């Protein structure tokens, strides 16, 4: 029966509403907790299909689907994990559910799926994380769960087709203080500079946005980014980008030139001080 509901709900929106109205949601949720992996997968996939209808999302969440979906994300078949990530993404489109999903332990499991899953799993996990991390407490959870490692790895691989998605998630996370040392520790600075040099226009703009947030409050990070050779490609972007991209690139150039200017001023101050001492010695 679960298999039939899975198929019936797959392509026809009208069936999704009928099945939900017929009272199928709670029995399907109980299947998600089944110890039979195939039954669990059918239950997860049927719930995902029903969640594709906006009218069903609230009913699915209020019927207790979140915790069983998180369990499937932890121990289900590869398909069950992917579909659980998608179902949680659908449910997270209701604001109140973002917090409930975050507090149910989904974030570390989605980070793990992002790191170890196949390409579809990585896409599903990154999209779910992007949605969930619009809530501040989930941003902190994601950074503490080690999300920067897979994000940096995916951004460094231009063949992965994951550069854009990873950059969007990283950019969203930069508003929490823990994110900045995490990016640096995972080797994110050279990767971001490479994206500014060799990425698509959109990827370049996202990388500049991340670097700008990284550099805003830290001379140490500005020096690191400048030493990585970022300035020429950021200057080039400031001349060829969208108006918003130009603005961010211009702001980043100002910040990157500051450590140099400060060093020059210190050098000049040191030399003038030395000269005046020499004059006294004469």
UniProtKB/TrEMBL annotation:
Pfam families reported for this sequence: ARM_PUB
EC numbers for this chain: 2.3.2.27
InterPro entries: ARM-like (IPR011989), ARM-type_fold (IPR016024), ARM_PUB (IPR058678), Armadillo (IPR000225)
Pathway in which the depicted protein is active: Protein modification; protein ubiquitination
Biased segments, Basic and acidic residues type: 270-282
Reported function: Functions as an E3 ubiquitin ligase.
An example Gene Ontology biological process: protein ubiquitination
Molecular function GO labels: ubiquitin protein ligase activity
Family matches, as Gene3D superfamilies: Leucine-rich Repeat Variant
UniProt entry keywords in alphabetical sequence: Repeat, Transferase, Ubl conjugation pathway
ARM repeats: 23-65, 105-147
Catalytic reactions of this protein: S-ubiquitinyl-[E2 ubiquitin-conjugating enzyme]-L-cysteine + [acceptor protein]-L-lysine = [E2 ubiquitin-conjugating enzyme]-L-cysteine + N(6)-ubiquitinyl-[acceptor protein]-L-lysine
Name of the featured protein: RING-type E3 ubiquitin transferase
Region feature Disordered, mapped onto this chain: 259-282
Keyword field contains Transferase: yes
Protein species of origin: Noccaea caerulescens
Domain U-box: 3-258
Top-level division of the source organism's lineage: Eukaryota
């Amino acid at each position: 029966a679960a298999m039939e509901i899975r198929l019936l709900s797959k392509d026809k929106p009208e069936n999704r509403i009928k099945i939900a109205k017929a009272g199928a949601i709670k029995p399907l949720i109980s299947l998600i907790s089944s110890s039979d992996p195939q039954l669990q997968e059918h239950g997860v996939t049927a719930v995902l299909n029903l969640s594709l209808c906006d009218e069903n999302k609230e009913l699915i969440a209020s019927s207790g689907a979140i915790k069983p979906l998180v369990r499937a994300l932890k121990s289900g078949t590869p398909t069950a994990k992917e579909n659980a990530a998608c179902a949680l993404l659908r449910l997270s489109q209701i604001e109140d559910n973002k917090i409930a999903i975050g507090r149910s332990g989904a974030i570390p499991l989605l980070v793990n799926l992002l790191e170890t899953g196949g390409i579809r799993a990585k896409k599903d996990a990154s999209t779910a994380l992007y949605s969930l991390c619009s809530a501040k407490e989930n941003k902190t959870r994601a950074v503490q769960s080690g999300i920067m490692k897979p994000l940096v790895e995916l951004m460094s691989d231009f063949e992965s087709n994951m550069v854009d998605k990873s950059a969007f998630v990283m950019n969203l996370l930069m508003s929490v203080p823990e994110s900045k040392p995490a990016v640096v520790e995972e080797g994110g600075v050279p990767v971001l500079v490479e994206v500014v040099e060799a990425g698509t226009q959109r990827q370049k703009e996202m990388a500049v946005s991340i670097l700008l947030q990284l550099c805003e409050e830290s001379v140490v990070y500005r020096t690191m980014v400048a030493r990585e050779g970022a300035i020429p490609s950021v200057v080039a972007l400031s001349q060829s980008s969208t108006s918003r991209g130009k603005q961010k690139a211009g702001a980043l150039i100002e910040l990157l030139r500051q450590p140099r200017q400060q060093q020059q001023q210190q050098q000049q101050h040191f030399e003038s001080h030395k000269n005046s001492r020499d004059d006294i010695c004469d």
